[in-house]
Design goal:
heterodimer, A: 382 residues, Cytochrome-c3 Hydrogenase, chain B, 2 domains, three-stranded antiparallel beta sheet, 15 helices, 8 strands, globular, B: 178 residues, alpha+beta, Alpha-Beta Plaits, four-stranded antiparallel beta sheet, two-stranded antiparallel ribbon, 5 helices, 6 strands, elongated
Chain lengths: 382, 178
């Protein structure tokens, strides 16, 4: 909730000085290495300027040196909390340039993996949000479920975080035997657990008081700043890449897009962003169920030569990552190496709105705002 | 009036949360006490596709350099030379820098015999960076040459079989394509 700033010295009050505070880069609630330069007057912020770049690893430049196949493990590191969708972005880029048709079963495998990854990421997102605000219990519950998804993904592709599961033209490995039943069994339990986690927080008086009405983002402002994903939808804008321009096989599935309504406070406040994520987890599990039901037989990967050389030209791929719309731009000059790769991610645009949101907020609320945007620092810098 | 309502709301939501917390006492525990109190080694519980520390079976390495080319960070270094007298390929050096390796699995995919493969071993901490460079060639050895006819050396048959099973279940996605 915004606090009226009383101008220092006016009305006979004590004149107070503004203070410049550094929050970060190593701050436990900045989710990685992020720095905020906060100009504060007492407990109230005048301005919070994000300083990004501490985690810049020049991933885009690396792509120009390691080639088409070799870049796949690096895309895991773009957003290490939801690595599957970043994998998919790169694979889709290369496939569009190379004119490769992905087999149906491969696409379904991708959807199953990506949606499990999305649920995984949202679990960490709202678990960490609870922890930043002071509710430690939901974090342990969320991580317990997340570990189980990680176990499933480990069985699928051999790694828990940096999956490197997708390949240009499909996926590396088919679902292991008995995997479908295992996932369904997990989902039965998981959906109950998510509801329980929601019970822990959603109606909790302290939680609602802490978040409702804090830093509301009106729809027009959200669009002007280019917010993406759950952050945009929390502001009441119904835009999801999976629905708006379906890629992969998302046309085959029925799912809802949770949109913020301002049910506890204002439209687009921290609470809306939290509740949107929580509801998206349920939608992800719905998609996984449908994908397992409909998955066709056949190969999982198309024939792609080892020294893959796509046509010269460029392409632009848009897909829905856990942190919002992920844009991949790729230019090729027809050689073994991409000419230029550019990635735009949801966390980056969420950072841009921070400065506009901060005036009048309490310093303690900044933590809630960062957490509610679900910012992952490596995705900001790439 | 709303003051009292707020107080009752706060208390009731605390008890709602505490009831969930309390119910956890009666559910099975999910935590394990790694490493000393595990009933089985963690390595044995990992799935087959787990990408752990790399291992090379030199007996069946053909010296084709496919893994070296596939590695995006060049952590594999292989020196293979033709012996002028016997016309056989001699492996002089096969180093993997496990400190650099990012366990992506791109090297074990193109291997024709399944020689380079991921184990399920993951406990690789060490005191120095140098000791993380695994040097597989101690003395130069002849590279494996697939036999068109005749029997393989009985000593390497089980290793070959292991490699083939690895390829079958893990590697070479492009060969399985339609």
């Amino acid at each position: 909730m915004s606090v009226e700033i009383e101008l220092a010295g006016e009305g006979g009050g004590l004149a107070t000085e503004e203070m410049v505070l550094n929050m970060g880069p190593q701050h436990p609630s900045t989710h990685g290495v992020l720095r905020f330069i906060v100009t504060a007057d007492g407990e109230v912020m005048r301005r919070a300027v994000p300083d990004i770049g501490y985690l810049h690893r020049s991933i885009e430049k690396i792509a120009e040196k390691v080639g088409w196949h070799g870049f796949m493990p690096y895309t895991d590191r773009v957003d290490y909390v939801a690595a599957m969708t970043a994998n998919q972005g790169w694979a889709m880029c290369a496939e569009r340039l190379g004119g490769i048709e992905v087999p149906k079963r491969g696409e379904y495998c991708r959807v199953i993996a990506a949606e499990l990854g999305r649920a995984c990421s949202h679990l960490l997102g709202f678990g960490a949000m609870g922890m930043d605000i002071g509710a430690i219990t939901p974090f342990t519950h969320a991580l317990r479920e997340r570990e189980m998804i990680n176990d499933l993904l480990e069985e699928l592709c051999g790694a828990r975080l940096t999956f490197n599961y997708l390949r240009i033209g499909g996926v590396a490995w088919d679902l292991p035997p008995g995997y479908e039943e295992k996932v369904l069994r997990f989902l039965d339990r998981f959906e109950l657990a998510v509801d329980e986690m929601g019970e822990l927080l959603s109606d909790n008086r302290i939680w609602v008081e802490r978040l409702a009405g804090v830093a509301p983002v009106p729809p027009a402002m959200a669009m002007a700043y280019g917010l993406a994903g759950p952050n945009l939808r929390a502001s009441g804008v119904n835009y999801d890449c999976r629905k708006a321009h379906p890629y992969s096989v998302y046309n085959d599935f029925e799912f809802d897009v949770p949109v913020g309504t301002g049910e506890k406070g204002e439209l687009g406040d921290c609470y809306d962003r939290y509740i949107c994520r929580l509801r998206e987890i349920r939608q992800s599990s719905r998609i996984v169920r449908q994908a397992i039901e409909k998955i066709p037989d056949g190969p999982v990967i198309a024939k792609v030569p080892r020294n893959f050389k796509p046509r010269a030209g460029d392409c632009h791929v848009v897909l829905e990552s856990a942190r919002g719309e992920m844009d991949w731009y790729c230019a090729s000059d027809g050689t073994e190496y991409p000419y230029r790769v550019h990635i735009k991610t949801g966390s980056f645009t969420a950072m841009s709105i921070m400065e506009a949101l901060s005036p009048g907020l309490m310093i303690a609320d900044l933590v809630a705002v960062i957490a509610s945007f679900d910012i992952v620092a490596p995705e900001v810098d790439r | 009036m709303s003051y009292i309502g707020n107080i009752t709301d706060t208390f009731s939501s605390i008890f709602e949360g505490m009831s969930i917390t309390f119910s956890q006492f009666f559910r099975p525990a999910y935590t394990v006490q790694y490493p000393d109190r595990m009933p089985v080694r963690v390595q044995d519980t990992l799935p087959y596709r787990y990408r752990g520390i790399l291992e090379v079976d030199l007996e069946i390495c053909t010296g084709c350099l496919a893994c070296e080319r596939a590695c995006p960070i060049n952590c594999i270094v292989i020196d293979a030379e033709k012996n002028k007298e016997t016309k056989a390929l001699v492996l002089k050096r096969f180093d993997i820098d496990m400190a650099k390796c990012m366990y992506c699995g791109l090297c074990s995919e193109p291997c024709p015999t399944g020689s380079i493969h991921h184990t399920r071993e993951f406990e690789g901490s060490d005191y120095s960076l140098e000791s993380l460079v695994r040097r597989f060639v101690k003395v130069p050895v002849d590279a494996y040459k697939p036999k068109k006819t005749g029997e393989n050396d009985p000593a390497i048959v089980p290793i070959l079989e292991r490699g083939m099973r690895y390829i079958e279940e893990f590697a070479q996605p492009e060969k399985k394509a339609s």
